[in-house]
From TrEMBL:
It is an enzyme of class 5 (isomerase). Residues 201-213 have a biased composition (Low complexity). PROSITE patterns: CSA_PPIASE_2, PROKAR_LIPOPROTEIN. It catalyses: [protein]-peptidylproline (omega=180) = [protein]-peptidylproline (omega=0). This is Peptidyl-prolyl cis-trans isomerase. One of its GO terms (molecular function) is peptidyl-prolyl cis-trans isomerase activity. Keywords: Isomerase, Rotamase, Signal. The keyword tRNA processing does not apply. Belongs to the cyclophilin-type PPIase family. Its EC number is 5.2.1.8. It comes from Microbacterium imperiale.
Length: 222
């Protein structure tokens, strides 16, 4: 299943954002530990179906902190962003680990939404919106999340089903606070995503593959 953004805009699932489609949903995790089962300050990465590439799950103890500079190197141009490891250590830890293992290399951004919600969804090397890294982990939310232009957030298939798919918000987007916000695009990165969005989807519909194909060729960190 594809990760879903939420029932907004046909679920906009748009992100479902994990699987961007009418309802981007990804395979639900096999199991997810309760909060009591996870030591304070630790991250629980639980094995789940749908692994697209063989990777090693990140360590339970976050190895990143502070603001982490990252650049999505894509066929449409470089997309610089700043990741907030202190606020979302498990999410940023996972993203950094996957990037260092080359998981995102040659991975398409498979979904663009241009009505209701305004996002470009990426992070599934299979390009189907159903793939993930073979593990899932919990949300990092406090209920105050909003999704203005420039937001970088995780797509999911429901509570605590984060994997590898994420979305880039290019215009202010109304969504419930259900998607972990773990970074921010800089102005140059936002401009690249807006240029992709301006070309619309390949079908002309408000939700579909971008007309301008976008492939992540690599991720540079620091």
């Amino acid at each position: 299943m594809r990760a879903r953004l939420g029932a907004t805009l046909l679920v906009l699932s748009a992100l479902a954002l994990a699987g961007c489609s009418s309802s981007p949903a990804s395979e639900a995790p096999d199991t997810m530990p309760t909060a009591d089962a996870v030591p304070d300050g630790s991250c629980a990465y639980v094995e789940a179906a749908g692994g697209v590439r063989e990777v090693t799950a990140p360590p339970a103890e976050a190895e990143v902190s502070g603001d982490v500079a990252a650049v999505l190197q894509t066929s449409a141009g470089d997309i610089p962003m700043t990741l907030t490891a202190d606020r979302t250590p498990c999410t940023v830890g996972s993203f950094v680990s996957l990037a260092e293992q080359g998981y995102y290399d040659d991975a398409p951004c498979h979904r663009l939404t241009t009505e209701g919600i305004f996002v470009l969804q990426c992070g599934d090397p299979s390009g189907t919106g159903r793939g993930g890294p073979g593990y899932r982990y919990a949300d990092e939310l406090d209920g105050s999340e909003t999704y203005p232009a420039g937001t970088v957030a995780m797509a999911n298939a429901g509570p605590d089903t984060n994997g590898s798919q994420f979305f880039l918000v290019y215009e202010d987007t109304p969504l419930p606070p259900s998607y972990t916000v773990f970074g921010q695009l800089d102005e140059a990165g936002l401009a690249v995503v807006r240029e992709v969005a301006a070309a619309g989807t390949d079908s002309g519909a408000g939700d579909g593959a971008p007309a301008t194909p976008v492939t992540i060729t690599g991720v540079s960190l620091g």
